[in-house]
Amino acid sequence: MPTYYDYELGKAAATLTKELFKLKPGETFVITADTESDSQVVDATARAAFAIGAKPMVIWVASPLGVGKDADPMLPLEALTAALKEADAWVEFNNKWLLYSTPFDIAMKENKRLRYLCLVGMDADMMVRCIGRVDYPILKEFEEKITEMTEAAKHVRMTTPAGGDVEFDNDPNHPISCETGYVDTPGPHMMAGQIGWSPAFESINGVIVFDGSLVPPFLGVLEQPVKLHVEKGKVVKIEGGKEAVEYEAWLNSFDDPMMLRLAHLAYGFNPGARLTGNILEDERVWGGTEWGLGQVGLMYVPPEGIKGASHTDGICLNTSVWLDGKQITDKGKVLDPTLASLVKQLGKA
Amino acid sequence: MFYYDYELGKATDVLVNELLKLKEGETFVITADTESSPTVVDASARAAFAAGAKPMVIWLASPLGVGKAADPMLPVEALTAVLKEADAWVEYNNQWLLYSTPYDIAMKENKKLRHLCLVGMSADMMVRCIGRVNYPVLKEFEEKITEMTKAAKHVRMTTPAGGDVEFEHARKNGQPDPNYVFSASLGYANVPGSHMMAGQIGWSPKLDTINGTIVFDGSLVPPCTGKLEEPVRLSVKGGEVVKIEGGAQAAEFEAWMGSFDHPQMRRLAHVCYGFNPGARLSGDILEDERVWGCTEWGIGNVGAILIQPDGIPAPSHSDGICLNTSVWLDGEQIMDKGKVLVKDLPRLAKELGKE
Prior knowledge:
The complex is a heterodimer.
Chain A lengths: L5 H15 L7 E7 L4 H13 L3 E7 L15 H9 L3 E4 L9 H9 L4 E4 L5 H9 L3 H17 L2 E5 L5 E5 L7 E3 L7 E4 L3 E4 L7 E6 L3 E2 L10 E6 L2 E7 L1 H12 L8 E7 L10 H4 L6 E8 L9 E11 L3 E4 L2 E5 L2 E2 L5 H6 L4
Parallel strand pairs in A: 1-2, 1-3, 3-4, 4-8
Antiparallel strand pairs in A: 5-6, 5-17, 6-10, 7-9, 9-14, 10-12, 11-16, 12-13, 14-15, 15-16, 17-18, 18-19
Chain B lengths: L4 H15 L7 E7 L4 H13 L3 E7 L15 H10 L2 E4 L9 H9 L4 E4 L5 H9 L3 H17 L2 E5 L5 E5 L2 E2 L2 E2 L6 E3 L7 E4 L3 E4 L7 E6 L3 E2 L10 E6 L2 E7 L1 H12 L8 E7 L10 H4 L6 E8 L9 E11 L3 E4 L2 E5 L2 E2 L4 H7 L4
Parallel strand pairs in B: 1-2, 1-3, 3-4, 4-10
Antiparallel strand pairs in B: 5-6, 5-19, 6-12, 7-8, 9-11, 11-16, 12-14, 13-18, 14-15, 16-17, 17-18, 19-20, 20-21
Helix pairs in contact in B: 1-2, 1-5, 3-4, 6-9
């Protein structure tokens, strides 16, 4: 008897290893996982890698109590680093992620051929919807067009049905990072369907309402919206219910002014993503936008980013977007006629 | 609940605490292949985590061969890199990594590495051969019988299946030759180096003094898989196998030996006592060679650990099991059809449940 999504997962894992990673026979493919990971996903991926002649090496570790560098003291640091330095490709299924941990940093710096894909906390359901059932060539074309349009705009306004209304200018020195899902070149890659960038920080003004999830400090989908009033890139007031109070206390607990500053935003455009409470998926829900606060990654503000005590991401569902006054999405639906056929092919018309 | 769930938990506690003596913060690598038992692997990681160590479980596709024959199918560089950084390593791979390139490099370059070879381990074997063993008593028993055997000049072994073989021990200046090592596996893996499952004592006699009849009635690996269907009888002269008799498996064995076209492949390499109180004849050589009161004869390559410094090279090696052996050391019978007879060995055997 098949396990949940057994057949579909086989196909999704084949897509992952063949189409996205383009694994070649003989390549060492490291799959990392922790005891919070979905073993069905891990096994299906190893199976698919083996079927195309690669050498899967599945590494399970105990779940650390934190992510990134917070996980370091609980990880077998030297042995893990050593393995990653010798891998050709690496998919990370750890729920307590290794992304930005010391083994990750060293491997990325010293292993120039390493292709890394971050699929933290992946489960069978998400893998089938967000990886297996995605038409990658079409999604790539769509994402690249939207990226191009956004890059060309000087001024952006975004509203949401929950009451969000925020505007900002783009900074031509800040690149736009477009995740199309492919992992066929060295370096870190994220799941398909997210386009992120940092605006000109001082130009961000208005109201941002999180009504999806908000991680950290919360787990799962928000019970009530959290409303941020933003002036010149800085959060000046937070309103809402119990979670808003907790969120404000959490931000202030770092005693770091960067924690009250917006860091980046992102469009969500993965055709299979649903609001589930898992931030990896929630930030890709079609037509949503995400705002990050705190530390700014170096991919958004090269070469070094902007240091902050921590980082948090919140989701705004069903966003309407105007680029230089021209509306391109309406409550999450893409309006631009040049994109209509692609949107239809992705099942999101 | 799965088969032996509770017992396996205890067996893995014994493994990590008593045998490997894992310390807090140590990196404990557990390797396995797709022929390995996931219940054994998971239980070991669980026990290591409870002991405060950092378990790192590595699953691989099963290579089509063992040792260096597995190399082309392994992620050699990444696996080697991990093993070079591990504090302790238990190997559950059914297609074993022992003597593969990652193993050789790790053992040579990682001076702190404690390796324990438990290839092809199952839940059942783990409970019987590891979890239910009284290690301090077994150690005392094995050390005593090793000492007695080493002190003897002449040994005779017979078995109910018709075996009757005798040999002398290598000596130098009236003492046992120190180059001929008596290797007793006590199960402990608390010092750097490679360790085997408890309950086996192996050595090489003065090879050209081996004469008589050896009858394999347990298993014979390679080339036969599982338990032997009928005995395979070897006539031995001056350490060389001069005649092989029996049924289809005897013919298979003779063909296999002949296929190497190498004189050392027809010569005996070592003998071993089996003394693991939990071992049963199961067709798995790791267990079979430890069945209480059996002896094992190896043919072909002689390892450098038994005859120092270099052993005797040969293209391959085979091990055969003779059940219920009677043993005479310098004419004194110390075992009768697998039962130990002398000094306080029967008392220790009784404590081990092997009256």
